[in-house]
Design a protein that fits this description.
The protein starts with a strand and ends with a helix. Helix 9 crosses helix 11. Strands 7-11-17-16-14-12-13 form a 7-stranded mixed β-sheet, with helices on both faces. Strand 16 and strand 17 form a beta hairpin. By secondary structure, it is of the alpha+beta class. The chain folds into 2 domains: about 220 residues, Chloramphenicol acetyltransferase-like domain (Chloramphenicol Acetyltransferase); about 160 residues, Chloramphenicol Acetyltransferase (2-Layer Sandwich). GO terms for molecular function: acyltransferase activity, transferring groups other than amino-acyl groups. Pfam families: Transferase (PF02458). InterPro entries: CAT-like_dom_sf, Plant_metabolite_acyltrans.
Length: about 450
């Protein structure tokens, strides 16, 4: 794909608006220290040539980004001391920190890249902003501080615009990053001259209680993993495709009703939701798209659960940072591959979520080891959620035509979930697979729909 970089622009909060600030990591943040960024692409139709964008829309896009960074300043900062014995922290220095916006132009087929059908992942990935290298990599000072965010805006002349955002997971979760995106988009719609009337982020780390020293224990585990050196490089991957599949509201409601009825029939308390239904369907299709699945005795599913409202006491929805815990699901393979496998999967997921009511932090000291223990089993994992309403993002050019989450490629077996772009109550499932597995997933997807 032909892509040309036009400029790289450092963007900071308005001068004098944010003092030098340090935010300690919590135990929710610490487990993401040596992972990578969450990458999201927003595609918008835009029927104007590049010069029109540069003169009419780039200035408010930049000024609104600066205004938004006044509230979301950690995204222009770094993580300090990730490898030292001192506790690492998010830091922002107005004299030395900024977020880089890469401005690019592409001659690729915008309609193909922003579609749902399988398309070449490598072409899409050229639209993803890359985080700058850690400071120890390029200037030799050895502190290894990690940049936290980057933006890329790619213009497809007279066809569309792609706004790409990469946010290192140690900075925040999807709830916080989408809070930032909504704030930036709202400021841009106002012309970039004033901040939007959106709720500001909440930074008080004191609301995350840690009486058992989970943060220091998690950091010790992460540093031990880092000390063991990087894992061996994975075998070379075949060319990958990225695609999206949509589940309609009527199908989702039908499965939710069946889960509720089955639970009542067995006297069980089950959590039934749109998320559960979509996860169950994706899980079954992904299992059946993989070779040798029938030889396994069990299957595993791993996803993150939002904890802001589940903590005791609850913390503000606007809390900026990570506030997620892993949820583990295991089911017998024999149950999942039967005709009612989707229902069996939904029941297993619903039971696991319901079990969190016993205490959302229960077993927290063992989360990391449990994750490491099931990774060899090839679990399906889930990124994103319909509740983030990514298709409500509007910078002044209308709703996105398409939203993708390319970072799911980094962890095999990961699917993304978002609300449907064209149907209230529907769900969009995204995934990255080699062609043969993508063909098998697609075939299974439509076969399973016929069973309902």
């Amino acid at each position: 794909m032909a892509i040309r970089v036009l400029d790289r622009i450092p963007v900071s909060p308005p001068p004098g608006s944010v003092p030098a600030t340090t935010l300690p990591l919590t135990f929710f943040d610490a487990s993401w220290l040596f992972t990578g960024p969450v990458e999201r692409l927003f595609f918008f139709s835009y029927p104007h040539p590049t010069p029109h964008f540069l003169s009419h829309h780039l200035p408010p896009l930049l000024s609104s980004l600066s205004l938004s960074l006044r509230s979301f300043f950690p995204l222009a900062g770094r993580v300090d001391r990730p490898l030292s014995s001192d506790p690492p922290a998010l830091s922002f220095s107005p004299s030395s920190h900024s977020l880089t916006l890469t401005l690019a132009e592409s001659s690729a087929d915008f309609d193909l890249l922003s579609g749902d059908s399988p398309r070449h992942f490598a072409e899409l990935y050229s639209l993803v902003p890359q985080l700058p290298p850690s400071s120890g990599d390029d200037d030799g000072d050895g502190d290894g501080s990690i940049p936290l965010a980057a933006v890329q805006v790619t213009v497809f002349p007279s066809r569309g615009i792609c706004v790409g955002l990469s946010v290192h997971h140690v900075a925040c979760d999807d709830s916080s990053s989408m809070h930032f995106v909504r704030s930036w988009a709202a400021a841009c719609r106002l012309g970039g001259a004033e901040p939007p009337a959106t709720a500001p982020p909440f930074y008080d780390r004191g609301v995350i209680a840690d009486p058992n020293g989970l943060c220091s224990k998690t950091l010790a585990e992460m540093r031990q993993l880092a000390a063991n050196g990087p894992p061996p490089p994975p075998p070379e991957k075949p060319p990958l495709l990225i695609a999206s599949f949509s589940l309609g509201r009527d199908w989702i409601e039908q499965l939710k009703q069946r889960v509720t009825a089955k639970a009542a029939e067995n006297g069980l308390a089950i959590h039934s939701s749109t998320f559960v239904a979509a996860c169950a369907f994706a899980w079954i299709c992904l299992i059946k798209s993989q070779r040798g699945f029938a030889d396994k005795k069990s299957a595993h599913l791993l996803f993150s659960v939002e904890c802001r409202s589940r903590l005791n006491p609850p913390i503000p929805e606007e809390y900026f940072g990570n506030c997620l815990r892993p949820c583990f699901v295991e089911a017998k393979m024999a149950d999942l591959v039967e005709k009612d496998g989707v229902l069996a999967a939904a029941m297993a997921i619903g039971r696991a979520i319901k079990g969190l009511e016993n205490g959302v932090l229960e077993g927290a000291e063992g989360w990391m080891q449990k994750i490491l223990s099931i990774l060899p089993e090839g679990p399906m994992s889930v990124a994103g959620s319909p509740r983030f309403q990514v298709y409500g993002t509007d910078f002044g050019w209308g709703r996105p035509k398409k939203v993708d989450l390319p970072s799911i490629e980094k962890t095999p077996g990961t699917v993304s979930l978002a609300e449907s772009s064209d149907e209230q109550g529907g769900v969009e499932i995204g995934l990255v697979l080699p062609k043969d597995e993508m063909d098998a997933f697609q075939s299974c997807f439509y076969d399973e729909l016929k069973l309902f």
